[in-house]
Specification:
alpha/beta; Spore Coat Polysaccharide Biosynthesis Protein SpsA, Chain A; seven-stranded mixed sheet; two-stranded antiparallel ribbon
Length: 254
C-alpha cells in the first residue's frame, strides 16, 4: 500500500503521430497495452491507488472505458498541455506525490517502482528516478523498465516557471533539467542495466510494437515478463531485434 497522498499516475492517450491507436491495439492475448500495464501494476498496488490521466478528446473514450473496466480512477484533462493535465489530476484526487508511468512502456518493472517509492519515503525530494553512471536520467533512454516520482508542488512550480510548449508536453524535463532550482535525486541503475543503452522497449512505431508484443508474449507465457535479466537475455538472443532497436534509438534519440 502506498503512503497517504501518493498515487500511481498512468499517462495515456490514443492520439499518436507515428502509430495512431497504439494504446488499444491487441498487444498480448487480445489485451491492449493499457490493459496489460494496468494488470501488472494492480499485482503490486491497490486499484484504488492507480489513476489514468487521459484527455478530453472523444477519441480517448475507449481508454476511459478500459480504466472503468479495470477498476482504476480516471481523470480527463488537456491533450497537449500534459504538465497541466498531471497537475489537475493530482489536485482532483488530492495527490501530493505521483509515481508517473508513460503507457508507451509495457515492460515497466514493479521491483524498481518499489525501490523508487521506498527511497523517496526515506529521502523526500522534488523529483527522483534512476540514472545511468554518467548522470543521464533513465527517462532519457528507451529502455522502458522504469518509472519516475515527482511532487505535485514541483509540477506546479515548473508550470509557473516556464511556458515553453516542450516542457508542458514533457512533464518532468524542466524539473530534472534544472537541478539548481529543484531537489533532484537520481538512483544508480542495477549493475546489469548500467551499460544497456542499446535496449528499446518503449513503443513509438509499428516496428517497436511488433518486437515488444512478440517478446512480451514469449516472456509472459514463461512467467518471466517481470524479470529484467530474462528480458535483456531474450533481446540479446535476437541479433535482428538488437539491430532494429539500435536503428530506432538513433532515429528517435531523446
Amino acid at each position: 500500500m502506498l503512503p497517504k497522498g501518493y498515487g500511481i499516475v498512468l499517462q495515456a492517450r490514443t492520439g499518436s503521430t507515428r502509430l495512431p491507436g497504439k494504446m488499444t491495439m491487441p498487444f498480448y492475448n487480445n489485451q491492449c497495452m493499457l490493459e496489460v500495464i494496468l494488470e501488472g501494476i494492480a499485482q503490486r498496488f491497490s486499484r484504488e491507488e492507480i489513476y489514468l490521466a487521459t484527455t478530453t478528446s472523444p477519441a480517448d473514450d475507449a481508454l476511459v472505458h478500459i480504466a472503468g473496466k479495470s477498476g482504476v480512477h480516471c481523470f480527463r484533462g488537456s491533450e497537449n498541455d500534459v504538465l497541466q493535465r498531471f497537475i489537475d489530476c493530482s489536485e482532483h484526487f488530492e495527490l501530493d506525490v505521483s509515481v508517473r508511468i508513460c503507457a508507451d512502456n509495457p515492460f515497466i518493472q514493479g521491483e524498481y517502482m518499489d525501490q523508487l517509492i521506498q527511497d523517496f519515503q526515506h529521502a523526500p525530494c522534488d523529483y527522483s528516478s534512476f540514472a545511468f553512471p554518467d548522470g543521464t536520467p533513465i527517462i532519457r533512454s528507451h529502455i522502458g523498465f522504469f518509472t519516475e516520482i515527482v511532487s505535485t508542488a514541483a509540477l506546479k512550480k515548473a508550470a509557473a516557471e516556464t511556458s515553453d510548449p516542450f516542457y508542458h508536453e514533457h512533464v518532468t524535463n524542466f524539473i530534472y533539467g534544472n537541478t539548481d532550482r529543484y531537489n533532484v535525486r537520481l538512483l544508480p541503475l542495477p549493475l546489469h542495466l548500467q551499460p544497456r543503452t542499446d535496449i528499446r522497449l518503449t513503443i513509438d512505431t509499428a516496428d517497436d510494437f511488433e518486437m515488444a508484443s512478440a517478446l512480451y508474449t514469449e516472456l509472459r507465457n514463461a512467467g518471466k515478463e517481470n524479470n529484467s535479466t530474462a528480458i535483456v537475455a531474450a533481446i540479446d538472443d535476437r541479433p535482428a531485434y538488437k539491430e532494429r532497436m539500435s536503428q530506432l534509438i538513433k532515429r528517435f534519440s531523446k
